[in-house]
Design a protein that fits this description.
Shape: globular
Strand content: under 5%
Helix content: 55-70%
Distance between the termini: 68 Å
Largest sheet: 2 strands, antiparallel
Number of strands: 2
């Protein structure tokens, strides 16, 4: 006999929102990774190793590293843990998104083609180093990864033993390299605004972690926030 009682969903509204955000951002990062891989391959193909071009090689390597980083993030979005706690209000989420994606505004600007070779290679090496370090950090962060200020699991191993936000440090290194490639007043403004938003993001993230994990207070007293021996 059929029951007249309406079926109740096993998924809460928060679950559905988290699933939607996870899917959308995961697909976006996967697509961006594909774009980077395609661009890197096209650049590597043009290299004449008989007349080695350090700039083209370093630039292709940097784009490849960006693609690997984006692919890693896409995979973690599919595997990450459910959040225990979230920062309340729209501003913490807004600051996190601006801190993470503001530099995409550089796509509206023209990349500099008149920079000295040393500056071009330095920019590519900064991007390569920053993204390589970021991938290493994500391997330790694992399923606790998040863009918004949320708590999933307190990670204190690997690079997190020394710095509480090593991923943001790696992203700052990458951002510096990108800024050099677009060197201009508008690029400087975007760079400065992103760093500011990252600091706001750190503030809200630490508040959430402190509220969730009692041991975070001890951990924060024995680690640097962003830059070892400085801050």
């Amino acid at each position: 006999m059929m029951s007249n009682t309406p079926l109740t969903s096993t998924l809460s509204e928060h679950d559905l929102i988290d699933f939607g955000i996870r899917g959308a951002l995961g697909l976006a990062f996967a697509f961006y990774a594909g774009v980077c891989f395609n661009k890197a391959i096209a650049q590597f193909v043009t290299i004449d190793f008989g007349r080695f071009d350090a700039h083209v090689f370093s630039q292709a390597s940097a784009v490849l590293a960006i693609g690997l980083y984006a692919l890693t993030v896409a995979c973690l979005y599919a595997l990450r843990l459910r959040p225990i706690r979230r920062a309340q209000g729209a501003w913490p989420a807004t600051a996190a998104l601006l801190g993470g994606f503001m530099m995409f505004g550089l796509l509206l600007l023209d990349q500099r083609t008149d920079l000295p070779l040393a500056a071009q290679v330095s920019a590519s090496l900064l991007i390569l180093t920053g993204n390589g370090f970021a991938i290493y950090i994500l391997a330790h962060l694992g399923r606790a990864f998040s863009i918004l200020p949320e708590s999933r699991k307190l990670v204190t191993t690997g690079p997190y033993q020394v710095v509480r936000h090593p991923l943001y440090l790696a992203e700052a290194v990458t951002t510096l390299g990108v800024f050099i490639q677009f060197l201009s007043l508008w690029a400087l403004l975007l760079f400065a605004m992103q760093i500011l938003m990252q600091m706001v993001r750190i503030h809200y993230e630490e508040n959430v972690l402190r509220e969730t994990f009692p041991e975070y207070a001890f951990y924060s007293r024995h680690s640097w926030r962003l830059i070892p021996m400085i801050y």
